[in-house]
Amino acid sequence: MKPEELRDTRPRQDPASAPPGEAARRVAVASLRGVSKRFGSAGVLEDINLDIAEGEALVLLGASGSGKTTILRIIAGLERPDTGRIHLHGTDVTELPARERGVGLIFQSYALFPHMTVEQNIGYGLRIRRRPRGEVREAVGRLLDLVHLEEHRKKIPAQLSGGQQQRVAIARALAYQPRILLFDEPFGALDTQTRVRLRREIRSLVKEVNVSALFITHDQEEALEIGDRIAVLNAGRLEQVGTPYEVYNRPATEYVATFLGAANLLLGVVRRGAVEIGMAALPVGAQAEKFRDGQSAKLVFRPEDVALSPTGRLPDGCRRLCNGTIEEVHFVGAYERLRLRLDLGAWHRAEGAAPSPTAAGHSAEPGGSISIIVTRPKTEAVATRFSVGERVAVGLMSFSVLPNYTLATERGGRAVDQSTEA
What is the mean pLDDT of the chain? Predict the structure, then answer.
């Protein structure tokens, strides 16, 4: 193995810094087209279409049972799809066995051989492929240097930390130059501090060797930090695929908005290019094209996108929503978390829609109120202190508007925080 075969030193643009959609326009290393899968009577995947670009780190994000591990196993050749095709580097591999696909699979459990040393584990794949001893020795030495484990080469896995074992597993997968690396919940067995450090190291390593990678996780923060793009999976369906910025700030569905971090949702009506929430009317810009006049909609915004003012003066570019009353104030280290009761005034009702209850179960008719979650960075919280019962003006720096398809059963407003909900 030549040095240039392990590291690609050609100048290239990091997908994370590329314009939206740029990663998807590059050559696809792996492609799934129309992939569906059932286990007995239970549907696990339904019509999955997905590309992984050259040099890209793609994260499949979803709750347990969403089908993300099944996608990984289908790419690896450990499961067969009921329908659809899988391509690697343009070649249809749907019928090929796992050993002939050229993929590297890294499990949460590492799957290292306990009685082999680090260097023996890394060189195992090359030895069973009957590569010359000199080539194996050279490759193992280079990989040990790459994952910073030179001084541990004679140790067995039991003598290593969890993070070191994970790096051995990655080096072993890289030894035979896979077309793509597949990581199945790679940090789940590690403590929080090690997990944060290792995911940064692994992202840097993947970029250094310029290999495409698919990560499986249910951890939202992990997905945002590792992925060039994130594919959000829900009950076997892809809800949205985009950059971390796109998926977090412009969620395509309510599931994406509420699964990827905390979100506030208010039920309103779109009229004349604006979403009406109580007495407020917020222009929705280009999003208005998705709605007919009078259609029920959901206003979705993150807690950190809310601006509060005790004087009524809101920042430039901030859309005024209403006034509100502070109900709770909590110090959470780097930020402050507040619960705020909104005074929305009269509620507009969508055509044909029944009155909608609020998160508290009360009528959202004129005079009704709901609560939202607001977060403020520590510097802002120190500069302007709020107390329970204080009245403030409420504005939104950023928001999205989604169609509301369940008119009669949707709640009038709610705050969803994945960090506190089960």
Answer: 82
Amino acid identity at 157: P
Mark residue 381 as left, alpha or beta (left: phi above 0; alpha: psi -120 to 50; beta: remaining). Answer: alpha
CA distance 412 to 363: 9
Is the distance from CB of 88 to CB of 104 less than 8 angstroms? no
Tokens for 5? Answer: 């075969």
Residues 5-10: contacts with CB under 8 Å, at least 24 apart? 5/177, 6/139, 6/142, 6/143, 6/146, 6/174, 6/177, 6/209, 7/146, 7/208, 7/209, 7/210, 8/55, 8/209, 8/210, 10/210
Distance between CA atoms of 215 and 203, rounded to whole angstroms?
Answer: 10
The tokens describing 340, both together, are 């705020």
CA pair distance 135, 1, nearest whole angstrom: 6
DSSP, collapsed to helix, strand or coil, labels residue 134 as helix
Q: How confident is the model at residue 238 (pLDDT cuts 50, 70, 90)?
A: very high
pTM for this predicted structure: 0.80
Tokens representing residue 351 in the block: 């055509």
Q: Is the pLDDT of residue 27 over 60?
A: yes
| CB-CB contact of 294 with 271 (8 Å) | yes
Whether residue 405 has pLDDT greater than 80:
no
How many other CB atoms are found less than 10 A from the CB of residue 102?
16
pLDDT tens profile 343-365: 886 444 443 343 333 333 223 33
Structure confidence by residue, pLDDT tens digits, 88-103? 988 999 999 988 888 9
38 phi/psi in degrees, rounded to 5 = -125, 145
pLDDT tens digits for range 144-159: 988 889 899 999 989 9
Distance CA 414, CA 369 (A): 11
Please tell me the predicted confidence (pLDDT) of residue 60: 96
- Comparing C-alpha atoms, which of 78, 119, 70, 122 is closest to residue 97? 78
Q: Are 368 and 267 in contact (CB under 8 A)?
A: no
**What DSSP assignment string belongs to 157-192?**
GGGS-HHHHHHHHHHHHHTT--SEEEEESTTTTS-H
Q: Count the neighbouring beta carbons within 10 Å of the beta carbon of residue 91.
A: 11
Label residue 102 left, alpha or beta by phi (over 0 means left) and psi (-120 to 50 means alpha). Answer: left
Model pLDDT for residues 253-310, shown as the tens digit of each residue = 999 999 988 999 999 999 999 999 988 899 988 888 888 999 999 999 999 999 999 9
